[in-house]
Amino acid sequence: MMGCSKFREQLSAYLDGELGADETGQTEAHLKACAQCSAELDDLRKAVAHLNSLEPVDPPPWLTQRVMAGIKSEGPNPVNS
Amino acid sequence: MDDDRGLVALCQKGDVEAFEQLVIRHQKKMLNIAFRMTGSYDDACDIVQDAFVSAYKEIRRFEGRSQFSTWLGTIVVNLSRNRLKQVQASRNRREVSINAEEGEVGIDPPSGEPSALEMMEKRDIQRGVQECIGKLDMDFRAVVVLRDIQGYAYNEIGEMLKVAEGTVKSRLFRAREMLKNCLKKTLGVL
Fold it and tell me: Domain count of chain A?
């Protein structure tokens, strides 16, 4: 019988659907019986949601041009040299 | 992306324009990996440039066993780690935070949507989250950025970081625990 600490280690992978069927079943059974681990899962889910919600930054309009200038200054593709 | 294979094949024959298509297609994702890893928009732009130049030089060695974006992401992660090491070594580390100038980049909301107050609150949360990411050690930071911000699968992250999937899983568990605790302190509530 696994204790809470072991289940808590599994919660991150459980959140991602990365546990096997047996482990998922055991984790879900434990979560139904353990309010503390359920609260941990809830907090973990919120923390991950904050990460998911980070706004992506846009590249500056000149980036492609600068990258390509860097590439052209390298000379021809090595495959042709 | 499926079309990457065709473009990569053209690049391997020396087609620079095909490479430019790959740059246009992947620069935003790569910039965001570097930005979240380093916390610096300027450094992220430099890293993306260096990564594409490096990929171009090595493109003939790319055998297509992984996706092009995974291969490119590996280069970006490694360059981001190197940049962080340089910054730490010089002991001149800027605080990893989204300063006003950086924070404004790319987060212009569609007009007429959230109120100014909501925007301020959102910006504070985003700043707090980035601060907490910046407090993680590099190995933990990398898994969080790749999984929770960029959405890579565990096997792809393992490939990029050259570690087993089990290691990805355990690092992610520890990283999320640290982040959760940091966010509680920084934001007050989750």
Answer: 1
- B165-181 residue pLDDT tens: 999 999 999 999 999 99
> Which class does domain B1-94 fall in?
mainly alpha
Q: Which chain A residues are Cβ-neighbours of B19 within 8 angstroms?
A: 68, 71
| Beta strand spans in A1-81 (E) | none
Q: In 3-state terms, what secondary structure has residue B25?
A: helix
Contacts of B110 in chain A (CB under 8 A): none
What average pLDDT does this structure show over B2-6?
A: 83
Q: Which pTM does this prediction carry?
A: 0.84
Cβ–Cβ below 8 Å for A71 and B129:
no
Where are the domain boundaries for CATH 1.10.1740.10 in chain B?
Answer: 1-94
SS3 track for B155-170: HHHHHHHCCCHHHHHH
pLDDT, tens digit (0-9, with 9 covering 90-100), for B114-131: 777 777 788 888 999 999
| CATH no., domain B97-190 | 1.10.10.10
Closest approach of chain B CAs to the CA of A2, in angstroms?
17
Q: In chain A, which residues have their Cβ closer than 8 Å to the Cβ of B101?
A: none
